[in-house]
Amino acid sequence: MIDTTHFKFASHSRCLIAFVVSLMWVQWFSNECVAQATGPTTGSANASAGPTPSDRPGEQASTNGVGVNFELLAGDQEQRIDRLINNMTLAEKIGQLVQLYPDEDALGDDLAQRVRRGQIGSIFYPGNPDVVREAQRIARDESRLGIPLLIARDVIHGFRTIFPIPLGQAASWNPELVEQAARVSAHEAKLAGIDWTFAPMVDITRDARWGRIAESLGEDPYLSSKLAAAMVEGFQQERDGHFGGIIACAKHYVGYGLVEGGRDYNRVSVSQADLHNILLPPFRASVDAGCRTLMTSFSEINGVPATAHAPLLRGVLKRDWQFDGIVVSDWGSIGEMVVHGFAKDPVQATELAVMAGVDMDMCNALFEKHLAKLVAKERVPIERLDDAVRRVLRVKFALANRPAEFSDPEVLGEQGLELSRRVARESVVLLKNNGPLPLDLAKLKRVAVIGPMADAPQQQLGCWVLDAKSEDSVTPLADLRKRLGDKAEVLYAPGADSTMSDDETLIPAAVKAASEADVALLFVGEDAVLSGEARSRASLNLPGVQSQLVKQVVDTGVPTVLVFLAGRPLAIGDEVEAAGAVLFAWHPGTMAGPAITDLLIGEASPSGKLPVTFPRSVGQTPIYYSRSNTGRPSPPEYRPLVGSGKVDLPIEFQYKSHYVDELPNPLFPFGFGLSYTQFDYSSINANSDKLSFGDDITLSAKVTNSGKVAAVEVVQLYVQDKFASIVRPVRELKAFRRVHLEPGESKRVTFRLNSADLEFYDNDGNRVLEPGDFNAWIGGDSNAQLLVEFEVVRANSSMKPNTAQQLPTAAASVPQPR
Ligand code: BGC
After folding, report:
1. What is the bridge-based pairing of β-strands 150-153 and 122-124?
2. How many A from CA of 331 to the centre of ligand 1?
3. Whose CA is nearest to atom 7 of ligand 1?
4. Which of 125, 197, 504, 650 is least crowded, fewest Cβ atoms below 10 Å from its Cβ?
5. What are the b/e assignments for 535-566, b being 16+ CB within 10 Å?
6. How many angstroms separate the first and last alpha carbons of the chain?
7. Which residues are registered as beta bridge partners of 717?
8. Which residue's CA is minimally distant from atom 12 of ligand 1?
């Protein structure tokens, strides 16, 4: 029953209450949206009995000609939300926190009825726009309060137009482009009635075994933060109070990317310092970019499931960062706390989650089952419940001004496809080139196109492509046929049915094709199902018979270009060694073919840089550039014992940090990527050799294109804090810039750092800046050698603030629930 004491309706007719409140909901959204086609109808209420529009102060006309005393519409959004909450029943409040997955075929009577009763706040888009259209209509027109549903879907790297997997997009090091890709995805999704995507995934990961590395933005907190913010902005398109896109969701808060052994859902154990220095920054960047929702992780973190981690949820996120959006659990992660051995039963799991700060229950049906009882028993204060509802309503208000949806989908438009091609092109990393690239078409009569990924329309899309259609894909084979057609003959031989196939019978035909051609283009890698959620691998080798295929093709002596399409870094040292040139294209999406051909034939020069370190073998994982030094680093000239022909290591190599059967360094370092030209770095400079607390320092270097083609270089700045109260990484990325250089052209690239950029969190969760010596390198990857040193000094003037002390500290204590 609505408590009308807070309301003053123009008419006191009780029968109007439902309608009026419903109408208010729509009008509370915005002044403009009253006329939306999606606005409420009279539903079960009797509109004709209502008051007529008038010019009385405080009243507005509705589409139905019903006037409402909008005294209750006065005030800012928060006040309107509060009034709405005051008029919701407990069941309606809980309903807002419930998310379900409907059947794809039809909404179903039961779900329709629950939506009508206001018992559902959000549903997934099940692949069928009709289902969500109907659900949304019922929510808006037939539920008592007319509160719309949030329609959710994993739009991870495209809706219908598929962009490279996020890890591939990260290899572009191009936040503007990544933002544009998210815009297109949001647009396509919005047309299908989707309000909310569960992206970006901003988990830092340093373990290529973990299948979800494909969805990540790589190993580095700085690069991930920049790209995460760009994705959030692209998805949401929120400017000056206007919301143009779909709601973003930074996930999985937090620590998921560190799952032990790279095995999905596994435990995570992490120091306070690493948590704050490495894992939290991309979430903070997402929140600062306006991200309106966050999802908890499936994992436990230091023994506490992330879904019940009060210090991180209520403390860091909601208190310290002032995050006022929705925290949604991951799919079933509340109930899974019982399996974890953290909650004794689903009731306790529900209490723990909601009291820790989870606002919405994804597909677990636990809030709807247990929350009312928990509130009645005062295990969950009504204030906590209201806070969760308020957060959901805030998001719904934000969406209210969006342009109308459900028009006929204009998906897969030319511009989107062209953008997809560009993102794919910029995400490809040239790992090696001994000469075959770019292809000299004038000299090629026959081109062998080989490998299971050459013509695999579904596989090139990668993981999480729920709404893609494989027939939209342009494969490398199709595009090469089209673009080389009249210049060179294309000889196609797949060599294997799939990347996972153990059948060697197709290899001889591939070898034959190669031996008849002037060049062999060999497309190998991983099928899409080998990466993504619950797709961890224990090996990082090329699966199936692909290594044999590569070897036998290379053995023909025909120049071989290897193109990898895969969802993770692979341990491909032997293949790289054997081939003449190597491109790593990740899973490039719909436009894989055109993007890769652009690079193969030199219409563009590769500019991608690795957002993750490539291990030599799986045993090196986790491996990342931003490691700490040991007290016994391996000397650069170290060679493993196994394979050396010796019975033991020479004395100077003993008792060092290495493997006896592998080099300690990676196959390719973070930030690495070649081009068809050559970039030279020189003349590094710091504008001062001292940096006072609170001040800036300017670091610069000259970059020259000393080759013959115009190209883009990603110039990178790394810094090392040489001695500190906790051991700091050997180097950390602090800035980067994409620079276009014509042949022979030089540019001085300048980066400005503030002393705050050199702060870090210690193991008590305090953010500190310590005086001392720093190294800075500028170059084209994380092995950059051009070095300049400077010293951070305490300001001797009391005017200089110690910014460290002004920054929020980590949650030492947990605040009481609101
Ligand atoms: C994944 C999330 C995803 C959710 C909804 C879960 O299994 O971990 O990343 O957003 O499902 O599909």
Report:
1. parallel
2. 6
3. 331
4. 650
5. bbbeebebbbbbbebbebbbebebbbbbbbbb
6. 25
7. 735, 778
8. 154
**Helix, strand or coil, per DSSP, at residue 749:** strand
* 253 Cβ closer than 6 Å to some ligand 1 atom: no
Judge whether 457 and 471 are in contact, CB under 8 Å. yes
Q: What percent helix, strand, coil does the chain show, rounded to 5?
A: 35, 20, 50
Looking only at the bridges linking them, the beta strands covering 746-754 and 696-705 are antiparallel
| Residue with token string 């909008």 | 70
Q: What is the pLDDT of residue 242?
A: 86
Q: What does the mean pLDDT of the chain come to? A: 89
Closest CA to 494 of 476, 516, 482: 476
- What pLDDT sits at residue 404? 61
pLDDT: which is higher, 612 or 816: 612
Average pLDDT rounded to a whole number, residues 473-495: 96
Shortest-distance atom of ligand 1 to CA 251? 9
Buried b (16+ CB within 10 A) or exposed e, 152-191: bbbbbbbbbbbbbbbbbbbbbbbbebbbbbbbbbbbbbbb
Classify residue 453 by burial, with Cβ atoms within 10 Å: 0-12, 13-18, 19+: buried
CA–CA gap between residue 80 and residue 86 (Å, rounded): 10
Q: How many A from CA of 530 to the centre of ligand 1?
A: 17
Q: From atom 8 of ligand 1, which residue's Cα is the shortest distance away?
A: 330
| Nearest C-alpha neighbor of 666 from the set 626, 627, 630, 620 | 620
Catalytic residue among 154, 330, 598, 762: 330
Give residue 411's pLDDT: 86
Q: What is the value of pTM for the model shown? A: 0.91
Reported as a single tens digit per residue, the pLDDT across 53-82 is: 232 223 333 332 233 334 445 678 899 999
Residue 568 has pLDDT above 90, yes or no: yes
Residue 198 Cβ contacting ligand 1 at under 6 Å: yes
How many residues in the chain?
818
755-767 mean pLDDT: 95
Residue 206 clears pLDDT 70, i.e. is over it: yes
Residue spans of beta strands (DSSP E) within 444-517: 446-450, 489-493
Q: How far apart are CA 3 and CA 23, in angstroms?
A: 17
293 alpha carbon – ligand 1 mean position (Å): 14
Q: Distance from the CA of 631 to the center of ligand 1, in angstroms?
A: 41
CB of 265 closer than 6 A to ligand 1? no
Q: How many helices (H) and strands (E) does the chain have?
A: 22, 30
In this structure, the strands spanning 760-761 and 767-768 are: antiparallel
332 C-alpha vs ligand 1 centroid, how far in Å?
A: 9
Cis peptide before 252 (omega within 30 of 0): yes
Residue 687 structure tokens: 């504008």
Q: Which two tokens stand for residue 454?
A: 């050459």
324 tagged catalytic: no
Residue 786 CB partners (closer than 8 Å, separation 6+): 681, 682, 684, 701, 777, 778, 779
- Give the separation between CA 31 and CA 8, rounded to whole angstroms: 20
Rounded CA separation 254/386 (Å): 25
pLDDT reading at 698 higher than 60: yes
CA distance 155 to 198: 7
The SS3 call for residue 458 is coil
Token output for 674: 């070649």
